[in-house]
Amino acid sequence: MVFRQRLLACTRHLIKTYFFSRTAENYAKTRPSTFSASCFHENQKHFLPDCFSHPRYGFNNDYKCYFLSAIPLLIVYVYYKKYHILPCVEAATIRTDSPRSQFNFIADVVEGSANSVVCIDIKNTQRLDFFAWTPPSMSNGSGFIIDSDGLILTNAHVVMGHPQSAIQVKLANGTVYPGKVEDIDVHSDLAAIRIKPKGKLSPLKLGESKSLRAGEWVIAMGSPLTLSNTVTAGIVSSAHRTSSELQLHGKDMHYIQTDASITFGNSGGPLINLDGEVVGINSMKVAEAGISFAIPIEYAKIFLERSKNRKSDPSSTKRYLGITMIGLNKDILRELQYRDHHVAKDIQEGAIVWKVVIGSPAHRGGLVPGDIVVEINGSKVKSSNTVYEVMEKDSVLNMKIFRGNGYYEVVIYPEDIV
Q1: Looking at the whole model, is its pTM more than 0.90?
Q2: What's one GO-annotated cellular component (predicted)?
């Protein structure tokens, strides 16, 4: 037992001296009590502990040092697991009780959702960049995958209003696919884009916005300025902000108000709750107030259901006009007259054109903002819904409008959206 203890002690000393000190003088200065002068060779700087020169154990200093140095290595090999001669080192593990691993909930949601967010780039096919020799970008936005076969949901204003253009969809892994608008709804500002990927994609799960509460955390994801995987977070201020409160006339909708920043190019991206479910589609931001608004996901579910029904019934093809209208009533007519807007006295109802998308069928047909539509295909226009209802039935629209001081007629050919 005593021999084994001394042998192990000598082994530890030899290992230390073998790796950390190659001369007897240096080690003797630091550990003078462990070694004696008789252990040193005159012609060699190597040294041996006294235990190896004791006659009882059969060792003397005439042996070569490299032979004796092999003994502790053999002892280490034999007794390592049983006596633990060398210290055991274990790999570091991640602390599961740290605040970073327990409360970094936003990072957990982003990690599971980032691969489903895409960047939508609108390319001008009529021009080529002088240096890159590729079509330049006209605008860009965001979207997210809702079907593993390549169906993407985004805002309508991201893809419409760009005639003679091509849509490019860039996935999170950098792969770029050409996209095609499969369906569009200008009223709810939603559009569906179809790509043909080489493999299955990772869709996001659609949640429910009606269960949102004020103060609940939400995460806005998108690709502003084509910078993919851009994340902002905030809380919900209101889950039912009506369009009338936002001064959005002609839209009978409500929106999700949040302080999560929705910047330029973030439109069309998902608004996600902490369960990783999409509860809204990023839509617009009031820059001066620092608040943003998203379209509730319930509108997207209705839009997708109608799109599915139109695909099964080819006769119900969706048409695109490219205008935003406001239905006229007594209050609006009084306001127009107060602002010196030329309105005929016999006009009591109709729809005033508020916005016209450049390059749209309405723009090509001659409509301009401020025109008042009073008749369409022989029917009196009572509100903006009258125009949309006739447009869904007829492929040619003969409109009677009031502009300036007189009445005019325009012919518009809406575009079919497959």
Answers
A1: no
A2: mitochondrial membrane
